[in-house]
Task: structure prediction
Amino acid sequence: MNWLILAGVFWAAAFITNIVLANSRWSHTTLVRLTIPVLFGVTILVIWEALVHAFGISAAILPAPSDVGATFMNSTDMLWEDFRQTVLKGALRGYVIGAVAALVTAVLIDRSPFLTQGLLPIGNFVAALPIVGVAPILVSWFGFDWHSKAAVVVIMVFFPILVNTVQGLREADAMQRDLMKTYASSYMQTLIKLRFPAALPFVFNGLKIAATLALIGAIVAEYFGSPTRGMGFRISTGVGSLSIDLVWAEIAVAAMAGTAFYGVVAWIEKKVTYWHPSQRG
Result:
């Protein structure tokens, strides 16, 4: 019962603190905007810890955050190796390949009405394919190493970036395009100086969506075949051996990696599209 009282007191204190910070004159500052979600996350961990201890929940079902943290600290070498295999080799390489291919294809589609009417519907169809059905096929094609995981990631990130880029290339209005024609601008000059800059907010929207999909795709692909390392491999074997604390440690690494990946893309967007109204506050 003491654990429940502690959790209730902490939750009330954090709730009041968040309200005060949100309504303060410093609410627009970076420090406060970071403090509020961090405090909310810590509150969830404290309540989680309290519930596990108060009700005696088995570690094989739901380990306490303190146990997960201890496993994390004792398994840093293994977690780093899994991170390198899944994120740096599979997810990141597949993300880059898929993004470049999507941008090039978007320009080709914009250039060709035939591709606009033919490729986009097929793209929507392929994007709807279940990844658990595609991943085993790609693993059998490309092998158990990172190449098959990168292939899965390419499929997952390609179409969100493609669709957003194609839509963004249509954002420049007719008057602006006519003005470029009066300057005798070629298609590539118009694309580089007018249409692609106007499309950047849409491109980065697709890149941010793909940033989270890339990690999910790489982890899921490892369920269907992987060398003896990788987040998906470790989660699968951890569940089988009831090492749930290790599974949660891998989930924590994946969450941090996905958040950092998304944050880097958002930071680049802010620097590149500083002129856009959405970035001017």
Notes: The chain has two domains: 2-57, 71-279. The mean pLDDT is 84. Residues 153 and 216 are 8 Å apart (CA to CA). Residues 76-111 form the longest helix (36 residues).
